[in-house]
Design a protein that fits this description.
Helix content is 40%, strand content 13%. By secondary structure, the chain is α+β, with helices and mostly antiparallel strands. It has a seven-stranded antiparallel sheet with strand order 2-1-6-7-5-4-3, sandwiched between helices. It has a two-stranded antiparallel sheet with strand order 8-9. A hairpin with a 4-residue loop joins strand 6 and strand 7. It is an enzyme of class 2 (transferase).
């Protein structure tokens, strides 16, 4: 079965094979838990990313129907911060998803390379965080039924040529009923195996801290209850590759963003905010705070002493 649509209509399986020269390694731009990713140009001229999926599941007759139904739902998702899923293929020879191609690659890549990371100034990082929040809020609150991503990480946030953020890979996690082993997932999954929107909220908090710190916040998160961590100053955990020379507006938004991230990491899922509440907070113009930026501690942010989240 093939269902790939663009403005020119359906694209044949043979066109995909021809465009990738039968998935030649030269077109491979990455690999992951689901399979390889290929960059290719379709006959219409559109450049896309083809995500090849593992084939073992496709032998199950029940999987064929569930895959098709889910894929059709996901191709209808439209939001300016969500990667467009153009279509899918379930074939006896291969199984893949066809996504919009993003020029700058993953957020993880851009944070891990010094030259790329230095281009991500505070204003750009703030906008990246907002884009992720708006995309997830749409998935959780504007889609019927709600879409839970299950695998939010910096690897699954892609950037376009203007460094705008797009949530990606939401299709593969749902279609393969996949549970990630990445370090952004909350502890409750280990004993409940129940995926909810609050799992995505936790992972969002981790990615936000990673974006602002420039590295994965494993140590910070595992030690949040310790006084030594709580007494750390906000300025001391921010990415040192970016000068602490920013506008007052950036200061306010950095404080708000890190405060929101910390609320997302609450061990109790019901105490975490929803993505809609987070998106609303980021949309509201924030009043100036009276604390001197250099003196703001993690403890103050954890206790929401700078901003009160969820105010009326």
């Amino acid at each position: 079965m093939l269902s790939i649509w663009n403005h020119d209509g359906k694209i044949s399986f043979e066109d995909i094979i021809k465009a990738t020269k039968d998935f030649d390694i030269r077109y491979c731009i990455g690999t992951g838990a689901y399979g390889n990713v290929y960059k290719t140009q379709l006959p219409s001229g559109r450049i896309v990313a083809l995500k090849e999926l593992h084939k073992s599941e496709s032998e199950n007759p029940c999987f064929y129907k569930s895959f098709s139904n889910e894929a059709k739902i996901l191709t209808e998702v439209r939001h300016h911060n969500i990667i467009r899923l153009y279509g899918f293929c379930l074939h006896n020879k291969c199984m893949f998803l066809v996504y919009e191609y993003m020029e700058r690659g993953s957020l993880f890549y851009n944070l891990s390379i010094d030259m790329e990371a230095q281009e991500l100034n505070w204003s750009k990082r703030i906008n990246i965080v907002k884009g992720i929040a708006y995309g997830l809020a749409h998935m959780h609150h504007d889609c019927t039924p709600p879409i839970v991503h299950r695998d939010i990480s910096s690897n699954n946030i892609l950037l376009n040529s203007e460094l705008q953020a797009f949530v990606s890979d939401f299709g593969a996690t749902r279609l393969l009923d996949y549970y990630s082993s990445n370090q952004t997932l909350p502890a409750e999954l280990a004993y409940t195996l129940t995926v909810t929107t609050k799992c995505d909220v936790f992972s969002f908090g981790v990615v936000v801290l990673e974006t602002m710190m420039g590295r994965h916040p494993t140590e910070l998160i595992s030690s949040l209850s310790e006084p030594s961590i709580q007494n750390k100053k906000l300025k001391d955990i921010l990415d040192s590759r970016i000068p602490l020379l920013f506008s007052r507006k950036d200061m306010q938004e950095i404080v708000l963003i890190v405060t929101l991230a910390l609320t997302c990491l609450c061990p109790h899922p019901k105490s975490r905010p929803s993505m809609q509440e987070i998106a609303n907070e980021l949309l509201v113009s924030q009043p100036p705070f009276v604390w001197h930026f250099d003196g703001i501690s993690i403890h103050q942010l954890m206790k929401q002493k700078i901003y009160i989240i969820g105010r009326s």
